[in-house]
């Protein structure tokens, strides 16, 4: 029996990239998907596409960097009189600037969008979730390794990993499992344009796709896998395990 049929799934940052794939895959398994995103055009297009395919989806314009927008999102979901079963905290932004050039305003915008939103969305969702529900947060391998000029993004993603196990502890008595996924290189635009070396530098011999992350979200949302909680699942084709020396 399909465990996701009729379940309510909330996906932040659902209109594009990884979030879009997550929403489509949950919908294909019969879930009712609420699409939260700041991109109204793409969000409405995705809602229409899912509905035309026989699924049930609702786009809700949401800026997760603004607390009242998150509150409004869940109040609108309440109006449908459906419990929230699964939350996927996917929304995120990045900006690569020297630490000497990154403004406090930009730091706050990245932290508030990527990290604070995870706490606020999780708190709102958990208050509405029945036992056996799941929260999956999308972090990044940049929580564990870095390139220059990525301080705000790395801090936000590292914070998500820590927040995940903290919330898993806090929500354990409600029987809500909380996990996160740290994707590596996930190509969301021009997969066909990748070079051979882009693929072969991975143990998997290929760069990742949004569907790789979406399948993991489904796995971690399955009540049959509720012995997994507080974990960070790295999906990067083995790159963080690859020993590399400069030639």
From TrEMBL:
Molecular function via GO: oxidoreductase activity, acting on the CH-OH group of donors, NAD or NADP as acceptor
Superkingdom of origin: Bacteria
Protein family according to the UniProt entry: Belongs to the short-chain dehydrogenases/reductases (SDR) family.
PANTHER family, alphabetized: SHORT-CHAIN DEHYDROGENASES/REDUCTASES FAMILY MEMBER (PTHR42760)
Protein name: NAD(P)-dependent dehydrogenase (Short-subunit alcohol dehydrogenase family)
Source lineage: Bacteria, Pseudomonadati, Bacteroidota, Bacteroidia, Bacteroidales
